[in-house]
């Protein structure tokens, strides 16, 4: 079950564990409707993810998979990207 952040007009902010996606819930402070808010990115932090360069193994080392993939592709081999469900 997901946890969502909510804010009420009374100024009370809280998070709530819900069984499905909701846009409004009751405020725990005043009892009025509180609207769902979305977390903001921290100022000065740039979040980027590139799976071809950011893959790491279980030990935190950069994966060499993409280097091998690019080499095999350049050599004309039939290569495919494995799925994350273990179907390699």
The number of helical elements comes to: 2
SS-based class? alpha+beta
Q: What shape does the CA trace take?
A: elongated
User: Mean pLDDT, rounded to whole units?
Assistant: 76
Give the neighbour order of strands across the main sheet.
Answer: 2-1-4-3
Terminal Cα span = 29 Å
Our estimate of the beta-strand percent is 15-25%
**How large is the radius of gyration?**
22 Å
Helix content: 10-25%
Q: Which blocks of ≥5 consecutive residues have pLDDT under 50?
A: none
Summarize this structure as a short list of keywords or feature phrases:
alpha+beta; single chain
Polypeptide structure, described:
By secondary structure, this protein is of the alpha+beta class. It contains two helices and four strands, in the order ββββαα. The chain has a domain at 3-37. It has a four-stranded antiparallel sheet with strand order 2-1-4-3, with no helix packed on it.
Briefly characterize the structure:
By secondary structure, the chain is an alpha+beta fold. It is built from two helices and four strands; from the N terminus they run ββββαα.
List the helices and strands and how they pair.
Blueprint lengths: L2 E5 L5 E5 L6 E3 L6 E5 L13 H4 L10 H10 L14
Antiparallel strand pairs: 1-2, 1-4, 3-4
